[in-house]
């Protein structure tokens, strides 16, 4: 019985450690982001707790999960019933890609936007820089 309890405690501890290692929370997404799409169009997005505003248009969103793959931390979000992934491309969480996901693979799909908290992103430059992390061919 003691062995079983010890095994359970160790398993729970490891599970908590893995969750903590993800190191992402909804607050990492919140705030002002500069964005650019594949056509080169620039905009600013402000994320709050349950909605975001882009060029004056307000839209709701919901964080549905989080994960870690290929050294990329990500949040799964639902916008207008569609599934997206916000992939944080650097450890400081100030550079990200918004991916319209294909099926159940969070880092596979079409990159809708590149986001940056510190500068206006250049879609082509970011696509080249992060192609290995995101599996861009």
From TrEMBL:
Q: Does the keyword Signal apply?
A: yes
User: Keywords on this record?
Assistant: Signal
The name on file for this protein is: Lipoprotein
Q: Which N-terminal stretch is annotated as signal sequence?
A: 1-20
